[in-house]
Fold:
Amino acid sequence: LEEQDIPFGQDLVKVFTPYLLNLLDSGYSRKTLHQHRDFIWMFGGRLVEERQLYRELRKLDARSIVLRYIDEQDGGPLLDDRSEREQGLFDATCRKLCRFLNVA
Structure:
């Protein structure tokens, strides 16, 4: 993490917060809510890394970058060192986030 990543991280929080608040109102169990939160946290970290690696992403706002990395069919990016089951759960979170952002 570098100091220049902080404003982008804050913008990601602004993108993710309405989604996470919506999940709270959805009646999911505490365990499921924590799982979604943890996957969003991982996804945000991944986006910070991607933005460091690919300069062209620095020209885009946080919401545009989020939508570039998720899809309603495929879910999210591949995670390193995760089981197939965890990847599937992560993808489900990303699909939900994608649907939420495309409606909001």
